[in-house]
Amino acid sequence: MKTRVYITIDTECAEERNVGGKQLPVQGYDVRVWGRFRNQQRDLGVGLIMRELEAQGHRGTFYTEVFGSYSFGKPGLAEAVHAMVARGHDVQLHTHPVQRVADYRTRGVPAAPDNIADYDEARQVELLKEGIDILESCGVPKGSVTSFRAGNFGASNTTWDAMAKAGLVVSSNYNPCYFDKNCKMRFDSAPPGLFDTGRGVWELPISNFKDAGGGFRHLQITAVSLEETKRYLMQASARGIREVMLVTHSFELCHIDDPSARLGRVNSINLLRLRGICRFLARRSDLFEVDTAGALGARIRDGREHPAARGAGDYPAGLARHKARRLVEQTIKRVEAKVRLPGVVFGNLARP
Predict the structure, then answer these.
(1) Which residues of 15-74 form beta strands (DSSP E)?
(2) pLDDT in tens, 268-308
């Protein structure tokens, strides 16, 4: 059997934030989702991601945040949803409750808890059902929302119970890389691939490897090198790990220089990583197939697939030399983010 690969994109706006002592304003759909900048000819957000996927015949799962629509307008959410659905991509549920009032600092009101695990089960069910209703009202086909990812991976085991009551089938929240941060899910002997939670929901965990030097590293475009991702994919295929979950965000392929003035540029390292993954998966279609979380959930819900936990065992391990190259790449990204080179330098990168 081929290993299924899920390329997932957390698609979201941004609330007011304090980063390094600097106040950052809210960022709506144009900047944070579409990457529409006055100094760029083409968008550098979800449109660019879709172009990269489609160039190799892939479809992505766009975990789309819903509560930002209260702050930034439902038409903006509907525009993004309609574009993704019309082009054959998968739209599933993502939540950041804090974005219901994204300018809470300016208003002088407390921020809502952003991790869904911070709510009791009954409230989690309400939030999930509300989120599904919002997506469907914005153009997601009724009944097609079968999967959920919490903002910040901030879910708990109770979230599985809430998902089952809300009619959701596939969770994508279990993330060892975030155990010390926001993810409160725990499961004894959890395999690296799809597993049955025993609560009426299947967990499609975020793929992690043991990082050289200790700890876990998850397969997020901005967090790992192309070499590390390809090594993980080949190890997964060899070990019988049938599912690999990759993560990125709608804004990861660009540097947002000035959200208020709508100025930004291509993030060359992240774009080349995504492009390399897409091309690698297309070349190695003998070993891998790109699936969507929504399609998996629908197959399980409708009884067309009866999965069993597979690929149980230890997590794959990274290599020290790959980590060293990653650290160099991350340094290049930081320099690129600070030094605003002319757009013409990286302009052609936005063409897959």
Answers:
(1) 17-19, 22-24, 61-65
(2) 999 999 999 999 999 999 999 999 999 999 999 999 988 87
Distance CA 318, CA 233 (A): 12
Report percent pLDDT > 70 for the chain. 95
Instruction: Please write down the long-range contacts of 132-135, taking CB distance under 8 Å and 24 or more positions apart.
Output: 132/93, 132/166, 132/167, 132/168, 134/66, 134/67, 134/69, 134/74, 134/77, 135/64, 135/66, 135/81, 135/91, 135/93
Radius of gyration for the chain, computed over Cα atoms and rounded to the nearest angstrom: 19
Model confidence at 329, pLDDT cuts 50, 70, 90, reads very high
First to last CA, the chain: 30
Distance CA 95, CA 62 (A): 12
Q: Give the CA-trace dihedral at 266, 5, 216, 44, to 10 degrees.
A: 10
Output the average pLDDT for the chain: 94
User: Comparing C-alpha atoms, which of 87, 104, 83 is closest to residue 36?
Assistant: 83
**pTM value?**
0.95
Strands 195-196 and 202-203: antiparallel
Quote the CA–CA distance of 225 and 93 in Å, as a whole number: 27
Token pair recorded at residue 95: 């939540």
Q: Quick one: 41 exposed, middle or buried, by C-beta within 10 A (0-12, 13-18, 19+)? A: exposed
Residue type, 295: A
Asked if residue 134 lies in contact with residue 93, where contact means CB atoms within 8 angstroms, the answer is no
Instruction: Name the H helices within the chain.
Output: 46-55, 69-72, 74-86, 104-107, 121-137, 157-166, 226-239, 268-283, 293-301, 320-338, 343-346
Looking at residue 19, its pLDDT comes to 79
The full set of domains in the chain, from first to last, is: 3-350 (3.20.20.370)
Q: Which is nearest to 155 in space by CA: 206, 88, 101, 83?
A: 206
Q: Is the Cα dihedral 297, 300, 305, 309 positive or negative? A: positive
Query: Is 201 in a helix, a strand, or coil?
Result: coil
